[in-house]
Amino acid sequence: MKRFLNLIVYILTIHVSALLIAGLFRLVLFISSYHQLTSEALSDKSLSMLAFVHGVWFDNVIGCYILLLPLAIAVVCGVCNYYGKALFRFFTIFFSVFYGLVYLISASDIPYFAYFFKHINSSIFEWFGYAGTTAGMILGESAYYLSIGLFLLFLAGFIVWLVCLSRYFHRRSLTISASFPFWKRGVVLLVGACLIGLCIFGIRGRTGYNPIKVSAAYFCQDAFLNQLGVSPTFNLLTSVMDDMRPENKYLHLMDEQEAITKAQALLNRQGEVAVSPLAVYRHASKADSVQQGRPNVVLIMMESMSSKLMKHFGQSETLTPFLDSLYTRSISFRNFYSAGIHTNHGLYATLYSFPAMMKRNLMKGSVIPRYSGLPTVLKENGYYNLFFMTHEGQYDNMNAFFRTNGYDEVFSQENYPADKVVNSFGVQDDFLYDYAIPVLNQRAATGEPFFATLLSISNHPPYVIPPFFHPKTSEPETQIVEYADWALRKFFEEARKQSWFDNTIFVLEGDHGKLVGDAECELPESYNHIPLMIYSSRIHPEEKNTFGGQVDIQPTILGLLNIDYLQNNFGVDLLKEERPCMFYTADNMIVGRNDTLLYLFNYETQQEFTYHIDNGKLKAVPMDDRFLPLKEYSFSMLQSAEFLVKHGKTVNSVPFTQQ
Q1: Where are the chain's structural domains?
Q2: What is the dihedral of CA 437, 438, 441, 442, to 10 degrees?
């Protein structure tokens, strides 16, 4: 038994030593990019220390992946009572090879990060087809010499250390009695099982609902420190796995250039050469604005809130009395559609005005993409941006994505009392709203305008009805809608008491819909038909019947705020422009619709479904030329979006003043 414990101590000593060397690479990265620190990070050293703590956390995940096989072999050898020299030699070679790869990635990451301000990722494999050019670039640039030297130095030191450890622990095992009663084999198995279990937990990285993701490293407003804690190897491996997912494959609907030309014509854009073919400078009209004193903006995204749940849209039961009342007191939109059928689609489209790309989650991935949108434009105009969610911050990579793309603070399950968490999606709506009020009061006290996004969750299974709430209906699916509506009413009642209420624009929309009633076609309308309400004491209520979608929220709100900006996305100002139709997706389905026609295309099976709409009723009809405008509109928008994302043309790369 003592010989087995000696072997385990040997393996764990290697593990700790390897983590220390990984930490040295992180220290070199920190020193080389020290100039990237913000003034806040320079004055508060604890932020840098916390980034290094996150680094150990992520390095340990990779270390546990490497550790798993040696632990399993150690248990087998322990049961067999074998501790020969060959075993220690194998471990020396094994750890040298795998940590050699880890250190090579870490060393390569230092110049890569300095150039791209992001960790090394799967894009490096595109260079492998140009081996000669890549080798010439590396050998011809002196900046790489330091990284190469560090890699060779640290790896050589690590290998020497491994050889020393191997000799020491092997000699030590020879001095321990070889006596090994049969009953001790069970003890070895038990201890080994516990160690392997801990190793698997280390691979998972956390106890929460989701395993560790890049988002877990994001904790402050310093972009460099947020990335410093991520292991380059972890980043590379997860980005490779992201690329392998079927939903992340490139969308081919039509020729790219043809799509862009059509999208330019349909959106009336000329493009800006320095930005993208769809970029345009927007000059707001003061006559249409409510800009007295720069209003705050509160965006509430209501989980699974289909329009079909509201009385105003034909719901027979009274589930949403508050929303129905607010609808008549707001600028409201009758023909408004979500970009997709998942929350990440709604957030992505609403905040950055890019359409959902089928089943793909464009916020997810180890490489955090950058977008210009509502948060970034407001931030450039002096707004302080806050995001409130009910669940874990790394769910759908939200914490990292939003901090990278315009948000100053992100509040999530990690910020709330543990006893308020009711299921895997965190806290309930009323707690989220109650939590947000004092935070917004603090921001209002600074005198600066704020943009707050609140993402609700209660109308998502598993449904949890609070014991203090007494619904009028009997089914959980409708009771939870009643509760969600009640929580919104309560939030507005509290907000109305605050000094900032009258100087705030409230935007309420569903993140997506859900199935309400029977399925009338391959994609029921209730999945994407959602309410949109823009409420303010300064805004005259009216109902708009024109078509719109979540991609249109940014230009519509910025128009109300009278903000000039460079727009580089797919939205239109719904208070000034009209869409002839609307397009949206739902996993494998693409949809285009207008008042009388509905076109659906299943991308996986390449099937088309066409319907005539008469007083809300659908009648299947054969495909003909009448549906071609809907098809071209939808395909050109999605293919153009795919082009912009593929080529990184998703940010306003030139300031507005260069118009």
Answers
A1: 2-244, 289-577
A2: -140
**Would the annotation count 511 as a binding residue?**
yes
The answer to whether 651 touches 600, Cβ cutoff 8 Å, is no
Of 1.10.10.10, 3.40.720.10, 3.30.1510.10, 3.30.465.60, the CATH number of 289-577 is 3.40.720.10
Active-site residue, from 233, 238, 320, 343 = 343
Tokens of 366: 């180890």
Instruction: State the pairing for strand pair 409-411/384-389.
Output: parallel
User: Whole-angstrom Cα distance, residue 479 to residue 302?
Assistant: 15
**376 labelled binding-site residue:** no
Q: Which amino acid is at 117?
A: F
How far is C-alpha 320 from the chain's CA centre?
30
> Given phi > 0 = left and psi -120 to 50 = alpha, else beta, which region is 109?
alpha
Note the pLDDT of residue 588: 82
Q: Which amino acid is at 134?
A: T
**Cα→Cα distances 36→114, 228, 385, 482, Å:** 10, 11, 22, 49
Cα gap 411→427, rounded to integer Å: 12
Q: Is 460 annotated as a binding residue?
A: yes
Half-sphere exposure of 390 (CA within 13 A, CB side): 26
Per-residue pLDDT at 14: 98
CA atoms of 402 and 387, how far apart (whole Å): 8
Residue 343 annotated to the active site: yes
Task: Report mean pLDDT in 10-residue bins for the chain, 659 residues.
Answer: 92 98 97 90 94 97 98 94 94 98 95 82 68 58 81 97 96 82 84 96 89 89 90 92 78 96 97 93 70 87 98 97 98 98 96 94 87 97 98 92 96 96 94 99 98 96 94 96 98 98 98 91 94 96 97 98 96 96 94 98 89 94 97 98 95 58
Neighbour-count burial of 94, counting CB atoms closer than 10 A to its CB (0-12 exposed, 13-18 middle, 19+ buried): middle
